[in-house]
């Protein structure tokens, strides 16, 4: 264990740069503890503490701009890949969309404190066309707050952190094994949570070709969109209803859909999440409310558009989407 502490002493800044960069790119390797430890080891050396903060912020900004560019170039498809890399629950996409839709770039100020939010928020900023200058401003401020808090805590509790390192050093190989076991447990817990969520939402699904075929035959199931309202306005499957509008009409979210007999051809629920996780959750909720014929749409709106089927959009959204310098490429 002594060699690891010596390594942090010798190459602490380089380790911090790589750790922050890799974590912000999506890998489930937490950088905050390393920032705290490195801040503690630097102690009261203000110059080195400021250099540490600057290096970590630059690393975070590089990674975030990569995801911003990816979101701008490839749209919503990027978000699912981030979840798979980070082992975060796929539902984090919908949560991020909700927060970013409400607060916009200001949400980047606290993004790095929320597990599964930072990388997705960066990609989402590119997807919805947030101007690069605005993104860089708020992302830099958010990185400063995140890194600064870790370094401050480390310097504030430097003696406590040093005592902990001394204990781990005294344990020798056992101390290193303890750190390794903690890291493996962290990864295993994230993987298990993700796997358990996906298993709990297994149910029959409907393909976009099947839905289009039903429509072509004059059979129109009730189609429910569970995405954010802004995404619904920009593009949606024809005749679909926004779940948020439905659920707000009554204390019981499903009550406006009653009676069950209104939906002779069933209900189809869609989103743009990997594995249709948000749609499956609402579908399960509707099943518990007595709706027997309800299925998530495989691939959601992205699959519908990729198959070349028609989409609807509000006129204002269509106008804004082609205005230079406003929202950029709008890919829900």
Can you give a write-up of this model?
It comes from Diaphorobacter aerolatus. Residues 222-313 form the Rhodanese domain. It is a multi-pass membrane protein. InterPro entries: DedA_domain, Rhodanese-like_dom, Rhodanese-like_dom_sf, VTT_dom. Keywords: Cell membrane, Membrane, Transmembrane, Transmembrane helix. This protein is mainly alpha-helical and 332 residues long. It folds into two domains: 2-200, no CATH class; 208-321, Rhodanese-like domain (Oxidized Rhodanese, domain 1), CATH 3.40.250. The protein has helices spanning 2-24, 32-42, 46-74, 77-86, 91-103, 118-127, 132-156, 158-171, 173-200, 208-216, 229-234, 243-247, 277-288, 300-306, 315-321; strands at residues 222-225, 241-242, 267-270, 294-296. Strands 2-1-3-4 form a four-stranded parallel beta sheet. Helix 13 (277-288) links the parallel strand 3 (267-270) and strand 4. Helix 4 runs antiparallel to helix 6 (118-127). The longest helix has 29 residues, at 46-74. The protein starts with a helix and ends in an 11-residue tail after the last helix. Residues 317-332 have low confidence and may be disordered.
């Amino acid at each position: 264990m002594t060699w690891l502490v010596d390594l942090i002493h010798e190459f602490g800044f380089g380790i911090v740069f790589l750790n922050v960069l890799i974590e912000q790119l999506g890998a489930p390797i937490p950088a905050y503890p390393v920032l705290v430890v490195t801040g503690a080891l630097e102690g009261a050396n203000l110059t080195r503490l400021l250099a540490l903060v600057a290096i970590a912020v630059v690393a975070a900004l590089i990674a975030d701009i990569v995801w911003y560019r990816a979101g701008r170039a490839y749209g919503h498809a990027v978000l699912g890949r981030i979840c798979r890399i980070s082992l975060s629950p796929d539902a984090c996409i919908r949560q991020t969309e909700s927060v970013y839709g409400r607060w916009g770039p200001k949400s980047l100020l606290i993004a790095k404190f929320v597990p599964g939010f930072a990388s997705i928020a960066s990609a989402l900023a590119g997807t919805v066309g947030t101007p690069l200058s605005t993104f860089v401003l708020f992302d830099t401020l958010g990185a400063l707050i995140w890194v600064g808090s870790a370094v401050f805590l480390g310097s504030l509790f430097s003696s406590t952190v040093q005592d902990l390192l001394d204990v781990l050093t005294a344990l020798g190989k056992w101390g290193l094994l303890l750190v390794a076991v903690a890291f493996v447990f962290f990864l295993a817990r994230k993987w298990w949570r993700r796997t358990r969520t996906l298993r709990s939402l297994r149910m029959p699904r409907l393909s976009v070709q099947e839905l289009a075929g039903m429509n072509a035959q004059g059979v129109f199931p009730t189609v429910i969109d569970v995405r954010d309202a802004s995404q619904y306005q920009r593009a949606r499957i024809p005749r679909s209803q926004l779940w948020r509008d439905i659920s707000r009409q009554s204390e019981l979210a499903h009550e406006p859909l009653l009676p069950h007999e209104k939906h002779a051809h069933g209900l189809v629920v869609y989103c743009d999440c990997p594995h249709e996780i948000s749609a499956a959750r609402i579908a399960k909720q509707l099943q518990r409310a007595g709706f027997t014929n309800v299925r998530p749409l495989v691939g959601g709106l992205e699959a519908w558009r990729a198959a070349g089927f028609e989409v609807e959009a509000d006129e204002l959204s269509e106008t804004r989407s082609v205005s230079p310098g406003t929202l950029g490429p709008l890919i829900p």
